[in-house]
Recover the amino acids of this structure.
């Protein structure tokens, strides 16, 4: 698999005609404990100590591993309806989105529930409710940005969860979303929204000002910043695309239905290892350079 993936990536780089970073190659998978029944894996996140967190749709949805891949703990049984997004903030708290129950949840690393934003099982809008939230990211000040997909908007909250502002609506125009599905944020606090359904990524500043639209790759399922590139997973065609942060130009693509089984949300650790959650594969694949 490793040789096939590398060969495919080199071909993609050649065809793109661009000098991109060295291709990623598969380094295997996060090893789930035998006693955990694994369902569709929607998200993976990494904290500042390189501990790895996985969100999946089996009986016990949240799993934690150390930087060497050793299983530490699992929690969240009975809490989730449709586990979707997963992030770790600068203080080490674990945040999740529950697309089916319309809430965000905040946990500590021991699995204790610290806060719930939104109302369990009650979709809504305005300043205190969500409708099928999919993803979230944090800016350099600790503010949260929520991809509230059912409402076609981005919601900005303080670190404590207080409503600050929102932007967007359902539609196809710039600043509108078919589905605000995934998020990424760069060192300059530019926010990337994976507008799944409209087959594009939209860029905004922290006040919701529209900067650009990037397209030409299909539907963005998950995104992650890697150096001077944005990587976007395209789950419909089982590929990952590389785009330059300066202009969104596609510099590489790789993956097939055999090597990536519906790649979804992704994460990067301090060592440069890329973790890809695979919905159909029911796994998290690791890639290095």
């Amino acid at each position: 698999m490793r040789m096939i993936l590398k060969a495919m990536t080199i071909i993609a780089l050649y065809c793109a005609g661009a000098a991109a970073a060295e291709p990623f190659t598969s380094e295997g998978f996060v090893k789930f404990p035998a006693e955990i029944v694994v369902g569709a894996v929607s998200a993976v996140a990494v904290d500042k100590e390189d501990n790895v967190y996985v969100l999946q749709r089996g009986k016990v949805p949240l799993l934690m591993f150390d930087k060497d891949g050793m299983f530490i703990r699992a929690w969240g049984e009975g809490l989730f309806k449709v586990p979707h997004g997963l992030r770790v903030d600068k203080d080490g708290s674990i945040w999740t989105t529950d697309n089916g129950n319309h809430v965000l949840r905040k946990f500590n690393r021991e699995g204790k529930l610290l806060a719930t934003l939104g109302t369990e099982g009650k979709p809504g809008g305005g300043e205190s409710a969500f409708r099928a939230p999919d993803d979230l990211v944090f800016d350099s000040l600790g503010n949260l940005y929520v991809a509230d997909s059912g409402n076609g908007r981005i919601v900005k909250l303080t670190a404590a969860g207080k409503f600050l502002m929102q932007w967007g609506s359902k539609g196809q125009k710039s600043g509108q979303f078919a589905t605000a599905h995934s998020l990424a944020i760069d060192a300059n606090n530019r926010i990337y929204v994976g507008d799944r359904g409209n087959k594009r990524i939209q860029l905004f500043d922290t006040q919701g000002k529209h900067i650009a639209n990037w397209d030409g790759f299909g539907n963005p399922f998950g995104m992650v910043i890697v150096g001077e590139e944005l990587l976007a997973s395209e789950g419909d065609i089982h590929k990952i695309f590389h785009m330059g942060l300066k202009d969104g130009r596609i510099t590489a693509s790789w993956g097939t239905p055999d090597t990536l089984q519906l790649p979804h949300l992704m994460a990067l650790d301090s060592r440069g290892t890329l973790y890809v959650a695979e919905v159909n594969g029911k796994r998290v694949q690791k890639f290095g350079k």
Remarks:
- The longest helix spans residues 2-16.
- Helices lie at 2-16.
- Residues 1-21 have pLDDT under 50 and may be disordered.
